[in-house]
From TrEMBL:
Protein source organism: Marinobacter guineae
Keywords, in A-Z order: ATP-binding, Cell inner membrane, Cell membrane, Membrane, Molybdenum, Nucleotide-binding, Translocase, Transport
Protein name per the record: Molybdenum ABC transporter ATP-binding protein
Alphabetical list of InterPro entries matching this protein: AAA+_ATPase, ABC_transporter-like_ATP-bd, ABC_transporter-like_CS, Mo/tungstate-bd_C_term_dom, ModC_ABC_ATP-bd, Molybdenum_import_ModC, Mop_domain, P-loop_NTPase
Cell inner membrane among keywords: yes
Pfam families, sorted: ABC_tran (PF00005), TOBE (PF03459)
Amino acid sequence: MSPIQASFRCRFENFELSVDLLLPGKGVTALFGHSGCGKTTLLRCIAGLQTSEGYLNVAGECWQDSSGFRPTHQRPLAYVFQETSLFPHLSVSGNLNYGYRRIPRAERRITFDQAVDWLGLTHLLNRMPAKLSGGERQRVAIARALLTSPRLLLMDEPLSALDQTSKQEIMPYLENLRESLAIPVIYVSHSAAEVARLADHIVMMDNGRVVAEGPLQETLARTDQPFGLEEDAGVILNATIEQVEPEWHLCRAGFDGGELWLRLHDGLVPGKPVRVRVLARDISIALAAHPDQSIQNLVPAVIDEIAREVTPGTSMVRLLAGQTPFLARLTTRSLHQLKLEAGRNVWMQIKSVAIVD
Ligand SMILES: Nc1ncnc2c1ncn2[C@@H]1O[C@H](COP(=O)(O)OP(=O)(O)OP(=O)(O)O)[C@@H](O)[C@H]1O
């Protein structure tokens, strides 16, 4: 898939958007940043709902440049908002068919059954929207959007109107989409946890500008923490379940550079790929592997980089276990006491590890 090339300038009375982006043509790109930084404005520029100077190329086609501006209805994209408005007089099936029937057969890239299957809607097809939960309504809205066979899916905080339980319910469907969809998704979110779970690529915005962007894992492992995650700073790594020990409720996951013990959940079987999140505040560093301590996860690593005094008294250490980066947040005092420096071989003591998939 061709990458998305986007360059936009637009100005309101008290705000200016100025961005240049080259985004992957597949997978989920999360747009992340504080309220008012311009995330929705950027989506609106992409959708052609906001006029702007610049250019936009999607799927190898020019949607906008100095010589032309395709209006929204000529941009093959779908947009899912926070609050969904389904047609109240049509069943779920009727809502899904509404957009689908308008796409000529030859141009359909996603079938009705595929969308229903990806979003788990089979048992809801005859329901009326008034009888759906918030999470179910959003799933219908996403399926309806996909059935217009878009080249690009824009999602503007699709979970923010849902309660915590509904968010948890819908997440596996979104993860499934990330694996199944051949088109790129641009996903606006405030939530670090959502981004960690769903994104492949992240773009951090501040005051109408892009302040950092890159592949999720690499970018989250930067010691300069451009995402301002503070307490939530940490890395995501891809691992595979290698062994389960039901009697201890634990399983072992291998990653490129080591292994980690995780709490065993239903569905975790040998061979299953998982996304694991390790927070910087959950890692401490030891110079030797002490066998007589309670922490299960002791991983050998080499110090790659140290950012001293990221906040008063605290430093951020980037470590590599094989090729996999980790971040550890330490007091600057312990850095001095242990005489830690780049290149040193150490042991990471990891207090807590969470599966995000
Ligand atoms: N049509 C408009 N006219 C004037 N100002 C606008 C307009 N649309 C947005 N703005 C301003 O542009 C800035 C960026 O708004 P935008 O909605 O893009 O931010 P956001 O990052 O999506 O915020 P949130 O996370 O709260 O949704 C804000 O200061 C907003 O007030």
